[in-house]
């Protein structure tokens, strides 16, 4: 069966010589992949002129809701993907990491998009910069979607997660995507895309897929396009050096396989909890996905006095790993993705053996399921020991992308850090220790060389997500050998697909562009208290100037009794003067309460609840007999999709009789829609 690509709104079956795709388990021919016949320039143009235009009609919140609906839709159909994932050699657990992990990433970005992004199409990056003395000329940064296509070139090991973890932030940012899965496992990604398109949840043109070669697509990239790559370092370097990538300064994000490490702290002993947790983690990472993970542990670094204990413990644990047909429940490790990968890993183990000795190779008989697996791509878990890691180069240069790890010893923490750094940049390093001082030294020592560091002790282990599991909220990527790229990390990854632009001008002009009141901008009032207006009727810049209130000594003392806050600066003139004040000063929280008393409308109004305060600063002290007055202005309005209410941000300035600001903050309220 020939799997089809989806380009410029139609499914296309290649018309050339196909690549045969084989089952990793049995070696049987299951699919053909062929992308010949696709006009790759037309594919990009379709994404730009149809997909991008359609996506950018929606706000961040509307896109986030689409991701949520898509995640729910795929969850209902995930068993379809599990059946196909079996052919890649994945066990049920392996497939869960790929399929459920990918869907979970959609849910995560859907949630973060609604909580952390505005319900509009422009993202404001940072606060207002005052560029003039009088405040009439200011600056601010905004981020807008790039108007090209995000092309995601993915690795074979995670056909679902690798696709969705890139698609989610790109779509949320406002960019259409072209997925290029690794050909060997493209049938899984293609089926997921087929279901996504069938759902009709996404705007037309949001998603296309290439099953086969990318042809001449690199020749047609423009400055508005983005390319992301996950795979081997050598392939990534070759793609990044493409003439068109350099000439057009096309954004290129690379996440490459690296020599990740797991380090045991010198405080551990063979009977300590951290030692047991360490052995469990290394063993699990060695066999999960048959060691075919970009985050897999390649270097096991332990104190010299524990080298033999660690080897013995790993030998014992790995001896019990059941290998074979991944459809069987008792099987914990399936085959590699294909015979070519078996040859590749075997060659790398041979290179590593120049300076390391093999101390374990599984000898268990493969579990079968009533059919032949002789032609499957199986490879036994292998453990090496490098006795001289400082004089050897292979453990720090050669990666066997399979169930292979090398144990090496260190004398001091400085030595351990040096060994880690010799990997020349990694995606993740982990440290098992119950000594927080050691953890601090280790983390700061390797941080410049790593995108993520996981530290585990007996307290965090139960809820730890694991060495090899990148989380949507945390950065995935790393410097040097790891590619120098960065993915995930919450909203940070959304901004990778946007252009940051500095705006300069008057506060009113800038606020008009990004839909937010900026201090110094024009305000307006129609005589109606803003709290009496429904969400639909509120306008940016609607403002209220309150009456004046005198703050008395009696007010301060009553608030002290009511709150229980009898801090000396509020209660004793002499002690207050020993601090930074001229005399007794009003409580900051009383000033907030008094300010609310000035601007709150007491009747039944569309304002439903106080949602919170942000950016609160007490700027000037308020003394007895000072007066306060409040300027309340609509800063921004954020409708809540599908709900009969919205969030209104109010710019609040409290000032005294000298027109000096004494407190500033942003008040958030829930306001009913009509």
Structure description:
It contains 20 helices and 28 strands. By secondary structure, it is α/β, with parallel strands linked by helices. It folds into three domains: 217 residues, Aldehyde Dehydrogenase, Chain A, domain 1 (3-Layer(aba) Sandwich), CATH 3.40.605.10; 223 residues, 3-Layer(aba) Sandwich (Aldehyde Dehydrogenase, Chain A, domain 2); 158 residues, Thiol Ester Dehydrase, Chain A, CATH 3.10.129.10. The strands form seven sheets. Strands 15-16-17-14-13-18-19 form a seven-stranded mixed beta sheet, sandwiched between helices. Strands 23, 24, 25, 26, 27 and 28 form a six-stranded antiparallel beta sheet that branches. Helix 2 packs antiparallel against helix 4, helix 3 runs antiparallel to helix 6 and helix 9 packs across helix 10. The mean pLDDT is 92.
């Amino acid at each position: 069966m020939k799997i089809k690509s989806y380009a410029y709104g139609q499914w296309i079956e290649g018309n050339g010589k196909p690549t045969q795709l084989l089952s990793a388990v049995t070696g049987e021919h299951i699919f053909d992949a062929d992308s010949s016949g696709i006009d790759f320039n037309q594919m990009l143009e379709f994404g730009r002129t149809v997909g991008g235009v359609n996506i950018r009609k929606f706000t961040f919140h509307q896109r986030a809701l689409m991701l949520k609906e898509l995640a729910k839709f795929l969850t209902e159909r995930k068993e379809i993907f599990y059946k196909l994932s079996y052919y890649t050699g994945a066990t049920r657990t392996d497939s869960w990491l790929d399929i459920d992990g990918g869907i979970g990433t959609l849910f995560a970005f859907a949630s973060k998009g609604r909580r952390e992004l505005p319900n509009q199409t422009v993202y404001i990056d940072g606060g207002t910069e005052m560029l003039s003395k009088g405040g009439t000329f200011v600056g601010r940064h905004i981020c807008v979607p790039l108007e090209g296509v995000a092309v995601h070139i993915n690795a074979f090991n995670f056909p679902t997660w690798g696709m969705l973890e890139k698609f989610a932030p790109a779509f949320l940012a406002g960019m259409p995507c072209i997925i290029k899965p690794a050909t060997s496992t493209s049938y899984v990604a293609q089926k997921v895309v087929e279901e996504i398109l069938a759902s009709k949840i996404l705007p037309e043109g949001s998603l296309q897929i290439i099953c086969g070669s990318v042809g001449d697509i690199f020749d047609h990239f423009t400055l508005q396009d983005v390319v992301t790559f996950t795979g081997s370092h050598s392939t990534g370097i070759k793609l990044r050096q493409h003439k068109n990538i350099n000439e057009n300064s096309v954004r290129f994000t690379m996440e490459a396989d690296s020599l990740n490490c797991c380090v045991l702290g010198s405080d551990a002993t063979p009977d300590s909890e951290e030692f047991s947790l360490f052995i469990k983690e290394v063993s699990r990472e060695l066999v999960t996905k048959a060691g075919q993970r970009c985050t897999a542990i390649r270097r096991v670094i332990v104190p010299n006095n524990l080298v033999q204990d660690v080897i013995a413990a790993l030998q014992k644990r790995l001896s019990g790993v059941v290998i074979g047909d991944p459809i069987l429940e008792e099987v914990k490790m399936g085959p590699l993705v294909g015979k070519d990968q078996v040859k590749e890993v075997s060659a790398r183990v041979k290179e590593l053996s120049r300076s390391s000795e093999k101390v374990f190779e599984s000898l268990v008989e493969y579990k079968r399921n009533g059919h032949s697996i002789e032609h499957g791509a199986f490879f036994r878990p292998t453990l090496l020991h490098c006795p001289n890691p400082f004089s050897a180069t292979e453990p720090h240069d050669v990666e066997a992308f399979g169930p292979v790890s090398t144990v090496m010893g260190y004398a001091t923490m400085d030595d351990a850090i040096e060994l880690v750094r010799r990997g020349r940049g990694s995606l993740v390093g982990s440290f098992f220790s119950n000594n927080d001082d050691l953890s601090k030294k280790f983390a700061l020592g390797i941080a410049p060389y790593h995108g993520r560091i996981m530290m585990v002790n007996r307290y965090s282990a139960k809820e730890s997500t694991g060495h090899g599991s990148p989380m949507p909220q945390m950065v995935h990527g790393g410097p040097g050998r790891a590619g120098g790229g960065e993915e995930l990390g919450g909203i940070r990854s959304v901004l990778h697909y946007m252009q940051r632009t500095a705006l300069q001008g008057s506060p009113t002009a800038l606020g008009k562009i990004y839909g937010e009141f900026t201090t110094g901008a024009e305000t307006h009032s129609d005589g109606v208290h803003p709290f009496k207006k429904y969400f639909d009727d509120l306008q940016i810049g609607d403002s209220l100037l309150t009456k004046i209130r005198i703050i008395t000594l009696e007010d301060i003392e009553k608030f002290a009794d009511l709150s229980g806050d009898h801090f000396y600066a509020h209660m004793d003139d002499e002690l207050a003067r020993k601090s930074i004040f001229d005399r007794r000063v009003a409580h900051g929280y009383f000033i907030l309460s008094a300010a609310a008393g000035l601007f709150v409308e007491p009747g039944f109004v569309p304002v439903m609840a106080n949602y919170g305060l942000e950016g609160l600063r007490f700027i000037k002290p308020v003394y007895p007999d000072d007066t306060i007055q409040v300027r309340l202005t609509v800063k921004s309005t954020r409708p809540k999709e599908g709900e009969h209410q919205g969030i209104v941000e109010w710019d609040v300035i409290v000032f005294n009789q000298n027109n000096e600001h004494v407190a500033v903050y942003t008040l958030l309220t829930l306001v009913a829609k009509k």
